[in-house]
Amino acid sequence: MRYPNCARAFTAAVSLTIVLSVSAGPSLAQAPDGAQAQAALQALVAQAKKEPDAINGSMTRVLLSTPDLIKQATKMFNQEFGLNKTFNIVEGTDNTFTAQMRASLDMDARPKLSFYTTNASDMQMFISGGYIPQVKDWQLLLAAINPRVQSGEVKPTDISRASFGGYAFAHSNRLKGVGYNTSLASPKDLPQTYAEIADPKYKGQYAIEPWTSHWDALAYNYYPDRLDKFLEIMNAIGKNSYWVAQSHQLIPRMAQGEFKFMTLNAEVIADYISKNPGAPLGYYFMNDMTLLETTMMFVPKQAPSSATGTLWVMFLTRPDVQALRWDDAPNVMYGEKPSDKEMKAKLDGKNVWDWQMNPSTTDYWKWLNSKDAETFRSQRLKAIKQQR
Amino acid sequence: MAEQAIELNGGLPEFLRALRQRTGEVLAKPYLVPLVIGGIPLILVVLLSLFVFYTTFVPRLPTKPEWTLANWALLADPHLWTVVMPNTLIVGFGAVAVTLFFAGPMAWLLVRTTIPFKNTLLTCVALVMVIPPFVKSMGWVLLLNERIGILNRLIVSIFPIDSFPVSTNNVWGIAWVMGLTLMPTTFFLIAGPMRQMDPAMEEAASICGASKLKTFLYVGMPLVWPAVVAAGIFTFMTAISLFEVPAIIVGLGGSTPVLATEMFFAVYGGDSGTTIRYGAAGVYAMLMMVPCLIGLYFYFKVIGKAHRYRVVTGKGYRPRDIDIGWWKWPGLIFIGLFLLFAAVLPLLWLVWISVASFRLPSIDALQHLNFGFYSWNYILTAFGGWPTIRNTIVLVVAVCIVAIFLSVMISWVVVRTKLRIRRVMDAASILPHAIPGLAFAFALFILALTTEVWTGLSIVGTMALLVVANVLSHLSYTTRVTNAALIQVHNELEEASRTCGATPLKSIFFILIPLIRPALVFVTIWVALRTFRELTMALFLTGTDNKVMAVQVWLAWNEGGLAQAAAGAVVMTIGCAILLFLGFVVTKGGVLKRATGN
For A96, which residue in chain B has the nearest alpha carbon? Predict the structure, then answer.
């Protein structure tokens, strides 16, 4: 079994990872015209002033974790734009809110919220489905709102990647890594590549999450023309695993010593340690690749108070607002918090990688979610869930 | 006037006169009002069920004109029939066995005998429901897990063995924890009807020389058979659909797959994005409905002979407690064991984890205890502040009132009439229990959205939608209780009231409801507690103005805050205990006395 895109250049993915600013430091871009940017911003603010003061939106708890942080961000927002808004944040699972949004628009009803939050991997589907309009003059607006964009230190496309530029804006990242019990093992005793997990010597020592994201990146990067080989590895990983469950359930059990390590979003370990000081847990990134998933915010079509929503999602990219984030929501792309820097240091020399980086990865992503890949998807899922 | 009316009638065409006469006859029927009131929510239930069925033929969201049979392809996997279904059946029947093992004797002891501390013990049984299933599961993992279970490690350290052979990491472990979790539900289903049994029958058995056990087995139990069958069906269906317990006890992996964990993969894991496959949830709903409908067939056969179970009559009915003498001590030990397994151990674990976090019990761990999560500000924030607490109270009260009222209406039609539609109504009322909460909530969301598009009336994100969702989903349980209770009340009492000129509704409110009050009080407590902790639908239908406490606690747990969630759950449990005891004190025992019929 092989991925059918012959034009795909395997080496391109590896070399392109260098392009990411993660380990290369901030990129310098040409600063947009200041006057034009201010004019675009003033027009948006004027529109926002006409909208109701109470704004509803969805954010995962990790972004602005407490009502106090939301109040602080709101105060800064109102001062910055001369507005008097209050933000009611709905907490819950992203996919239920976005499903509601899509259903509302499909049925010609208006979405209930002014802005939404979800994974970057969903963006292509939302954009091609016509659920999200592109923000007019988005690069100018970002430059007027975010001083680091204005100075050219951060490119607008760092915040709103090329494949969905102007549709959605990055807030923070999730990085796929390995969590481990520091009392039971050290990283040198543990696998350094995803394929090594299949080694029988690790049998019964690790847990995996039910999600497929770690493994999809492995398939694309190393086995695009040998998907059978990839499935063989996945079967071994699934069969040798001690447990399959969500990381939030398993981290306390890993801390208690039930097993040595597990694949997860690295920030959840940082979060757990911050809430439970002294927990014998650590995390590291694999040598072969580290998948970066960006958490995006966007304003859907026909959203209530769309101007205020647009201002808000762009405002949240500013460094001073980014500094309000808790440590469990790193922004390794352009964040400057100590936790961002710590994570960047751990990523030094690693192969950081994401699905939105180039047309080849995007094509693979589309194929993976197509009808053609149905059998592959099903086999991959069976492997993960240890179906024997 | 009379002449004028006759003349008027005489002037009408024949068909109109017939129609008028027929309408008059129908309006005079005693079943009309209960039929209409009970029918409305059931029409809604049928519509939602049909919608869920429709989603099974749609690839993604059911708002796009696309068709597929891919969701049904799930059924073609032999793994489903050779591994998943057998495991699921063990869990379902195992849970029923565990719940009946505890609930039958305990209901009898607590509502029919003179056993001491019955009000306190009843409160404790109610509190078992407040402890979230994930807490009970984690508690048993900590006790009996093959690697970190305290009991296992203790035994291995004492005896010369490598591992303790008893572990929860298997399908029997799931059934055991599931049974303990669902026992209060079964208890409340059985306790009400059991309370209403006429002791004269037991006394007759006793006079004929039957022992107390024989009397219980051969006289008591057969009389509450409809309630036991209903409880069995309900417990079975809950057990096969509950996700949290197997997910924690055996994980989501293939070592011990059950229907609920397989559904998780089908709904969330099929694609690489975060899209939910509602159609897959619908297929599993259909799978779960099959055993439900088979069970219902037998249930209908039982209630088809309803007259056999009528023990509350107008002649000489006198509920009375039975003195069990020294048997009260074994009885207390039996109840104590259940409370130890289902409440004390999980609660101790809950308290421990909320102050010690990840640390296993040890002398060293005692030096690191942290009570920070019990500060008032923290707790208030964890619960989402006063608006969330207010919303929760409004939700619980509204759902209790509406669900109980509708259940009485539905059950009256099902049990008291010979209408053909009564069986359809009974089957429809149990449907929501077969449909996974996620699919049900999504269907309700679409219905609300359609209402908004057609009428402009927006109820998405409001408390009203949460109330409707909870009422409809609880009907499957509440109607089981009210059916069982109504079966036991002879209709001669209502007939007498109607003969004296009371309207059908008056008869229901002033004759019937007081007679089935014990069952209603039990079911109200159950509905209140279930609504209080209902999560799946609340999570989907939550908006800015209808947040409830259960969602807040779940969010804390879901985002890695096990200790915070544990502290929240401890406070919720204590809060419920205080409310129940306050109710007891304020009414001078009225709440529980009514429940027990004393």
Answer: B540
Closest chain A residue to B385, measured at CA:
A67
- Give A103's contacts in chain B (Cβ within 8 Å): 61, 63, 445-446, 449
Contact B109, B325 (CB under 8 A): no
- Is the Cβ pair B148, A253 closer than 8 Å? yes
Q: Do strands A168-181 and A261-265 pair parallel, antiparallel, or not at all (unpaired)?
A: antiparallel
Beta bridge partners of A352: A290
Contact yes or no for B346/B570 (Cβ under 8 A): no
CB of A61 within 8 Å of a chain B CB? The answer is yes
Alpha carbons A272 and A267: distance in angstroms, whole number = 9
Alpha carbon B411 to its chain's center: 16
Residues 6+ apart with CB under 8 A from A54: A85, A86, A88
What pLDDT does residue A141 have?
Answer: 95
Q: Which of residues 347-386 of A touch B (CB under 8 A)?
A: 365, 368-369, 374, 377, 381-382, 384-386
Q: Which of A107, A243, A245 has its CB closest to that of B449?
A: A107
A-chain residues within 8 Å CB-CB of B64? 106
Per the CB < 8 A criterion, the answer to whether B455 and B277 are in contact is no
Q: How far apart are CA B424 and CA B354, in angstroms?
A: 48
Residue of chain A minimizing CA distance to B271: A369
Quote the CA–CA distance of A245 and A242 in Å, as a whole number: 10
Residue A181 forms contact with B (CB below 8 Å) = no
Q: Which of B174, B165, B146 is nearest to B90 (CA)?
A: B174
Q: How do strand A168-181 and strand A281-284 relate by DSSP bridges?
A: antiparallel
Burial class (CB within 10 angstroms; exposed 0-12, middle 13-18, buried 19+) of A78: middle
H or E element: which one contains A264?
A: strand A261-265
Where on the phi/psi map is residue A28: left (φ > 0), alpha (ψ -120 to 50), or beta? Answer: beta
pTM here is 0.78
DSSP string computed for A154-175: S-HHHHS-GGGTTTEEEEEEEE
Determine, for residues B61 and A99 on separate chains, whether the beta-carbon distance falls below 8 Å.
yes
Q: Which of B271, B243, B257, B259 is nearest to A238 (CA)?
A: B257
Q: What digits encode the pLDDT tens for the residues B515-560?
A: 888 778 878 887 888 888 777 788 778 777 788 887 877 777 666 6
Residues B565 and B552 sit within 8 Å (Cβ to Cβ)? no
Give the separation between CA B369 and CA B373, rounded to whole angstroms.
11
- pLDDT tens-digit readout, B154-170: 888 788 777 766 777 88
C-alpha torsion B439→B444→B448→B450, nearest 10? 60
The CA-atom distances, in angstroms, between A192 and each of A189, A223, A344, A348, B556 are: 9, 18, 18, 15, 32
Inter-chain CB proximity A210 and B148 less than 8 Å: no
pLDDT tens per residue across span B69-99: 888 888 888 888 888 899 999 999 999 999 9
Helices (H) and strands (E) in chain A, counts: 18, 10
With H, G, I as helix, E, B as strand and everything else as coil, classify residue A272.
Answer: helix
Chain B positions touching A98 (Cβ under 8 A) are 274
The ipTM is 0.73
Residue of A56, A238, A245 with shortest CB distance to B247: A245
Of B71, B321, B295, the closest CA to residue B195 belongs to B321
Subunit contact B270:A99, Cβ cutoff 8 A: no
Mutate which of B278, B349, B544 to disrupt the A interface (most A C-beta within 10 Å)?
Answer: B544
Q: What is the DSSP string of A363-387?
A: HHHHHHTSGGGHHHHHHHHHHHTT-
The dihedrals phi and psi of A44, each to the nearest 5 degrees, come to: -70, -40
Helix (H) or strand (E) segment spanning residue A57:
strand A54-58
